[in-house]
Amino acid sequence: MKKLFVFLSILFPAILFFYGCQPQEERTYTEAEAQKIYDNAVKLWNGGDIGIVDSLYAENCIYHNADVADIKGLEEMKEFITGVYASYPDFAVTLDESMKFKDRTVITYKATGTNEGPLGEEMQPTNKRISFTGVSISKIEDGKITEEWNYYNSLVINKQLGFKLVPVEEK
User: Fold this and answer.
1) N or C: which end of the chain has fewer CB within 10 A?
2) For position 67, which CATH number holds?
């Protein structure tokens, strides 16, 4: 048993060293492009300036959001952002430092806002404050986001707004 432990204690670090020393694939974006995207995202999600969308997202971008159908293209993205700020005029996001990979960045964030506008045709404003965390994964090509996945727990948001999950009764 002792020999097995010694063997594994040597083998495990050797495996970690071998795989950790593998050459990393070259990124499809520069550090300056990543910083520009980060800075523009901070501006966009802290005031809703849709004029920034054209410099942040590619023309044929796809935005996957946890709560809505896929958003495709710049115009749909601008409509989505306008809707967020219509519902939450003080919506603000604090971005953490991004993690950079070959063709993607991953950023965790904290978002806050006050629901002062309707959330839909049948959901009137609650005037309640929300605060939640999430993660955004952005695929980058030619200095712009071509595809983005945004994940957060909408149940937390709905609870803060005063809504509750009610199971549908089967008939």
Assistant:
1) C
2) 3.10.450.50
